[in-house]
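Re: the 171-residue chain
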Amino acid sequence: TENRQKFLINFAYFTVIISLAYAALKYLLPMTAPFVIGFLIAYALKKPIRLLSRSLHLPKKLSAIVVVLLFYATVGLLLVMLGLRGLSLLAALVGLIPQMYEIHIYPFFAEVLNNLETVFAGMDVSLVTIMESLGDQFFETMGKMVSGLSVFLMSFASSTASALPGTVIKI
């Protein structure tokens, strides 16, 4: 019974600790994250600021302004470059959609429709003609959908890429 009591007490302590940690991560972290990130950036830039101030004999405040501006310019440039790289990859993938349709999707559905036609061929000639017309309409609709999707995604990617530098400058 003493072991059970110890176990229950330890279990209760761990449950309380885990609950508090969960609540802190869920509710406090979003509110404190900007301050923590700012503190970490300031701490990381402390040595470069001191080094610049000592080596160029500049006031510490001026060195801090220069280093912080360089840091944020570098981070901003990296984010813009990553965003543009992601958009170019997206544009390349979107450009492959019609080719994927022609190589993979169209032959698959053509084979399925041919198999259905052979199944219905023994039943009635009118069913075969109906299946052929449905297949033609299906492929026409699919082609329009693929080209429309491709055009939409390309225009979205290009408009996003052109708006990205302006958004960064506004920030």
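Residues 43 and 161 are 34 Å apart (CA to CA).
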